[in-house]
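Backbone shape codes
____________________
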Amino acid sequence: MATRRTGLCGYQRYGRNSRVGALMTVHNLYIFDRNGSCLHYGEWNRKKQAGISKEEEFKLMYGMLFSIRSFCSKMSPLDMKDGFLTFQTSKYKLHYYETATGIKIIMNTDLGVPNAKDILHQIYSTLYVEYIVKNPLCVLGEQLSSDLFSTRLDLYIRALPFFSPRAA
């Protein structure tokens, strides 16, 4: 069995039982501002709900990210130039991207999805900047209300090579 470096302070094993080649998908996506306010939430193939309000879920997600980033920066034996990138459980993989302005984009996917840093960067640079930052009707720091942004984001996610609407 081989190992590879992951973005969360360690290594991941993969071998003949890995999910490479299996149906993969995107479960959900969060966009937070620098203060922890959830600006956008999108859901595609989420199988289980949290059992709490969305506002509580957003607070828990942001708090977990804050703690993991802090833990990794303090405990990592290596220079954390890229910082925290991914977090993996036995059921899903969380991909994380933070901009210089403090916008945080989080995407939960199936385990087989490779590092999505470039995809999250594309969401920021081609969708968020174009349809939110450059839109005079959108107030930065408030929940995103652009139907055009939501539609384009949905089309972008559905066009990803690893997106499958039927993945388990």
Observations:
- The first strand starts at residue 2 and ends at 6.
- The chain has three helices and seven strands.
- Residues 1-21 have pLDDT under 50 and may be disordered.
